[in-house]
Amino acid sequence: MTLESPREPSTLPSRLMRLVEPRVLGPVFGAAVVTITAVIIHRLAADVHLDDILSAVSEIPVRTLVWALGFSVISFAAMSFYDVLAVERVAPGRVSRRFAFLAGFIGYSISNAIGFHVLVGGPVRYRLYTHAGLDAADVGRIVGVSFMTFSLGLAAVAALALVFDPSGIPFLQALSPAADRAIGIAALLALGCLLVWLGQRARIVRVSGWSLPLPGARNAVSQIVIGAIDIATACAALYVLLPPDVAPAFSAFLVIFIAAIVFGVASHAPGGLGVLEATVLIGLGAAGRPDVIAALLVFRLIYYALPLAVALVALAAVEVVRVRERIPNVSRRALVLTRRIVAPASAIFVFLGGCVLLVSVNTPADGTRLDVLRTILPLPFAEASHMLASLVGLALIVISRGLFRRMAMARRIAIALLVAGALFSLAKGLDWEEASILLVMAAGLAIFRNVFYRKGDWRAFQPNPLWIGVTITAFAGLTLFGFFAFRHVEYQNALWWSFAWDEDAPRFLRATLVLGVVAAVLCLDALVNRPPLNKEKGCFPVPSDVRDILQLCPATHPQIALLGDKHFLLSEDRKGFVMYAVSGRSWISMGDPVGDKHAAHELIWRMAETADRAGARAIFYGVGTNYMPAYVDLGLSMLKIGEAARVELTEFNLEGARRQSLRYARNRAIREGLTFEVLPKDSVKLAIPQLRRVSDAWLELKKGREKGFSLGNFNEAYLSEFDCAVLMKDREIVAFANLWRGAEREELSIDLMRYQPGGSPVLMEAFFAFLLLYGREQGYRWFNLGGAPLSGLSDHPLASTWNKLGTLIFRRGDEFYNFEGLRAFKQKFDPVWTPQYMACPGGLNTAQSLVDVAGLISGGTFGIGKR
Q1: Could you say which of 220, 299, 643, 721 would form a disulfide bridge with 238 (CB–CB 3.0 to 4.6 Å)?
Q2: How many angstroms separate the CA atoms of 473 and 275, rounded?
Q3: Can you state the angle between helices 136-164 and 62-90, rounded to 10 degrees?
């Protein structure tokens, strides 16, 4: 069984185009901004030494720290109320205020610290709110209302600051105080007009079928007040830390702080790192003040790092409660909790372990320990250990991505790196503290071996754009830290080649250069050489056991297994199988398990487990209702994707007014000289040239491309597996369809149906009339007309987001596919409609699942829009 799909060759231009994808540009842009601001801060603080900053930190009074912490608590409490107000507006009565408050705190604490608010804050909230029964659309509306609250509060505070004290701010000195006040008054009037407009009646913003309810005037006032409290207290948390001789009036500093917040959010930098600091330093005109830099450092620890740690603990607690509610078995509950918590926790600690190593190599070593070390090791060993420790630190940051995805190889490599890092820490400066920390991490990974069970090569934990952005940000920040540490050393070219026990600065420069080159190569490789998420290619043999099972299967659609584009997972007794293909990080099963019903549940779970071990998501496409409980037990969401039409042949005929059009089409076809015939499969190979001519003409007419996976395509070996029904004129084939026959004459259907363009206008209806009459004559009970995509979805106002979106596409998607026309055509035969579903992971994984399935069927991402 193949775990990895062959990757399609890609040209250099196509690889470079991946660099401009939005999901790549955001994190990379944010990392670039952090790097640039690090350089700016380095120049602004040209005469500041690290010792000066640490001394200034130690001199901050405890009382001041308590005030800063208190203001931060109030700010985060107000921020958490954003979600409380949003939930009451979007989903009243469905989520408790306490849970909304918790979700708001966790979401903002994590997104504020990590940055990339859309990429981080949205998924975190979705993870939390799905526990309360909300869907993606509800979460999107909550995020929208919360952002509106933040924006209104920000605007109100900025306007008031401009009105009361616009002077003394360096970047506003280009305008007169009167102009500043005019701007503030205009902003307040605009807010007043907005409140009047909202108070007239309920306002709803609608965009392409999506709606966002706007708050009423009273709620808007509440949002403004809460937003203002959040911004003002966050500003106060930094303000109290500033030296008195630097801090301007509070209202003036508010404008500087708001500018720093806005620039930080716009930069997509993690936590506005560097951007906030540079803006405040420039706004206060405090470049070169170590006490101001110390205040900014302490503020970042109190306002960003501390809430992040608390939020991660709270998120873990939510996961514990969720597992306890869903899984009554104690041992299984412990296993699930371990897998959910240990993997992300290990990734975080290993990432921090890499940062610890980089901090160590970027700061001066302890002179006393070096004196001891020089009596034990030669200098070259210490120099090499310093360089290798820095490389191990970078490798730990990169490999932590694999731990997050529970990769077994990542765990083994991480243990080796942690042990090596501990040895190098001792060899470069007898840093036994960090060596102990790294060894404890290695022991933890060794204990929790079963958590990291997924297979995959090195590309399985290749950094994604978000991880790259965080890595570059950490590297830039730690490098800036190193430059502060060695600010007292005057730069000279000779430093690069200076090797001595007391020469820490040259070691730092050499390590920084090597790390920069290695990090750049890794990032470029990860961005340019990311495997494309297109359909896998290849022709896979069909096992003899699969053929034997198909011979006994009464349903016809499992015959698609003979197409040769799928892998097979057989049950232990070889009486059932699941057929699947790989697209991106999705393992997609075509339909329910085939064969023995007792083996079906085993196959469903084995399919999910095998995909999970490979670091992929399991998707079951085109399934019915027979095994729906098993899919639900797996935690999968059931999306209705359409309906299948089946005609009961025992009662089918062409008599009566309802079948007048079919009767007319058949009779006209006979008058025009069209004859119906079924070629046995032994004769199909001889007819391949004619069939290919018809197929090529049909494809040219449709301006499409061959499909696959759930639909057959023109493949000589595949067509030769079946009988072939044809319409002929003057002994030339003008239409054909391969026949699928179910066991015990339970069902008959067709797969690949194509016709010569420019023929009779009644050809299609006539062909189906001939086929159904043939099936009845052969004694078949049912004729399966196939599916009607997106048919039968609910359009009720309370229906799910997927149903509303699918209905919209069904009604207005004729540019891409004739959804309504196809269903109307099949309705002519008075079929019995049965629902079809896709079982896939919920949440944000649903969208990617749909893309992977569509790309698989359409022959690649660029084929999705083709007919």
Answers
A1: 299
A2: 12
A3: 130
Positive or negative torsion for Cα 242, 247, 250, 255? negative
**To which H or E segment does residue 644 belong?**
strand 636-648
Alpha-carbon distance of 328 to 326, in angstroms, equals 7
List all residues 6 or more positions away from 781 whose beta carbon is below 8 Å from its beta carbon: 648, 649, 650, 745, 746, 747
The token pair at 782 is 């049912």
Convert 597-634 into a string of H (helix), E (strand) and C (coil): HHHHHHHHHHHHHHHHHCCCEEEEEEECCCCHHHHHHC
Two tokens, residue 797? 């106002």
Can you read off the two tokens belonging to residue 403? 């731990």
What letter does residue 654 receive in the DSSP assignment? S
Among 364, 421, 378, which residue's Cα sits nearest to residue 397? 421
Report the alpha-carbon distance of residue 28 to residue 464 in Å, rounded.
Answer: 10
Within a 10 A sphere around the Cβ of 642, how many other Cβ atoms?
24
Structure tokens, 156: 């109100």
pTM of the model: 0.63
- Give per-residue pLDDT as tens, 83-134: 888 887 777 777 888 888 888 888 888 877 776 554 455 667 777 777 766 7
> In the structure encoding, which two tokens stand for residue 141, read together?
């509306």
Dihedral pair phi/psi, residue 754, rounded to 5°? -140, 155
Which residues have C-beta within 8 Å of that of residue 539, sequence separation ≥ 6?
Answer: 564, 565
From CA 701, how far away is CA 697, in angstroms rounded? 6
Residue 70, pLDDT score: 93
> What is the per-residue pLDDT across 298-307, written as a single tens digit (0 to 9) for each?
998 898 889 8
